[in-house]
Amino acid sequence: MSGLDKSRLIELLEYPRQRILQSMELNQCPHAGFFNHTDMQCINCHQGMECTWMNHNDETVAVDQKTAEELKQQLLVAVDFIDSSLSPHHLSRRQCECENCTWLKKVQKALDIPAV
Length: 116
Ligand SMILES: [Zn+2]
Prior knowledge:
The protein is an all-alpha fold.
């Protein structure tokens, strides 16, 4: 996977990081958002996907050590998350100017994936 600008991908991770963190109910988490893969409560947690993502991509993780391909995979997971949090109102994304849709468009452009 060449041609992908890592610093651009890292920049794009910034937005879903905030969004996912906001969506998580950390006051109900016994680990304060640190995924514990040996804890059944963690494994069965409804926030498992968000939590795992955060634990791979938050500020404490050296994202610049990742390959462009790994960053791309993490962005694609984030795209799914942002996408599923959008109301049907955003479906005509080409016209929508909200920050979710703006971010999605930027990612599609950066990763060269066709617009939905
Ligand atoms: Zn929108």
